[in-house]
Amino acid sequence: MAAEFPEQFKVTALAAGRRIERLTKQAREFDVSLVSVEREEDVAVVRGMLPGVDVRWGSEGLMEVALSQGVDMVVAALVGAAGLTSTLGALEAGIDVALANKETLVMAGQLMTAAAGKSGASILPVDSEHSAVFQALAGHDAAEVKRIILTASGGPFFGRSLESLKEVTPEEALAHPNWDMGRKISIDSATMMNKGLEVIEARWLFGLGAERIAVTVHPQSVVHSMVEFVDGSIIAHMGVADMRGPIAYALGNPSRLPLSGMALDLGRMGSLTFADPDFETFPALGLAYDAIKEGGTMPALLSGANEVAVEAFLSGLIRFTDISEVVKMAMNDYSPVEADSLEAVLEADSIARDRANQAVKNIRP
At which of 90, 125, 160 does a domain end? Predict the structure, then answer.
């Protein structure tokens, strides 16, 4: 987006995990002055590739990137819990956050929204579903909203039986029919945990209870989500399955950027279908609703356990259908506490990983 609209956006700092070559390429392209990497051992390598650029690492490096001088907006797109502290730091400093990370609000929604409210910073959703709701709500009073309806593609396995999913391979689960996503998000989509995390995220973004956040399966991924109002009217957001749209809306807000190649060909679209989610075959979605009802640090525990379970599946340690089972086992007998501090959230995440790793050992085939 910054390359497409250089007159409107200036990238000043970048952070990455271990994809050093991509980081250095982008750092040169945008002439950034600061970068951060995940591991200390990569610092010297990156410094050699980027002479004159300040190179940091770890959680402190992420925070320095988020709070670097002159930053007006932070795009938070790190997968999992890694970006939690730096995103909170940006919001506390009054810096707007374009949020492309589900776990940030899933784990610490109370903290993030409170920090934004106190500092005056905005949280702008980049997820296509939440961006759709955000756009559909524009100009409407919250009292007029009956519920929001998040659409789900259903992933590669919707319509399959639970029994048939037991032998699913990682390669099959990674083959999403509509979206090109990272490995963890693709697996979450296949289990429908992705949609469960989005329900929790929506609860904080839009201030609605779980009973007012519905999910419908829409395999065509043309309607990105909907808002139903108290008079029965529904406003649906439609668009091509391209993340450039929601990214541009978040970065350009409140203006719309003129994107090329984003027009829907309505005449060739065919039928649009919708179906209720299958909670029995895809229990991860129900676990997310359970986590909302439990409240406190339970969503943080759900998120952390799911990260462990997904990695265990990708590593061949458990079956596809065991992912939800691992999360469920981690949640069993856990008593959540108030998620009113970063320490409480991170403690729940740590407990989740310990419980989930033990569950993997218990059910390992």
Answer: 125
Please, are residues 205 and 136 in contact by the beta-carbon 8 Å criterion? Answer: no
Domain region containing 45: 13-125
DSSP sequence for 150-164: EEE--GGGTT--TGG
Does residue 174 share a domain with residue 56? no
**Cα separation, 338 vs 74, whole angstroms:** 27
Report the percent of the chain where pLDDT is more than 90: 81
Residue 266's pLDDT band (cuts 50, 70, 90):
confident
Contact 241, 258 (CB under 8 A): no
CATH number reported for the structural domain that contains residue 19 in this entry: 3.40.50.720
E strand or H helix at 355, and its extent?
A: helix 342-363
* Other CB atoms within 10 A of residue 343 CB: 8
The pTM score is 0.90
For residue 107, which phi and psi values (nearest 5 degrees)? -80, -40
Pick the closest to residue 215 from 162, 258, 276 (CA basis).
276
Alpha helices in the chain (DSSP H): 20-30, 43-49, 58-66, 84-92, 102-119, 128-136, 170-173, 183-191, 193-206, 244-252, 283-294, 298-314, 322-331, 342-363
Q: Angle CA(98)–CA(59)–CA(35) in degrees, nearest 5?
A: 70
Distance CA(312)–CA(329), nearest Å, equals 15
Q: Do 215 and 79 belong together in one domain?
A: no
Tens digit of each residue's pLDDT (9 = 90 or more) over 226-254: 999 999 999 999 998 889 999 999 999 98
pLDDT at residue 365 tops 60: no
SS3 label, residue 365: coil
What is the C-alpha radius of gyration for the chain, rounded to an integer number of angstroms?
A: 20
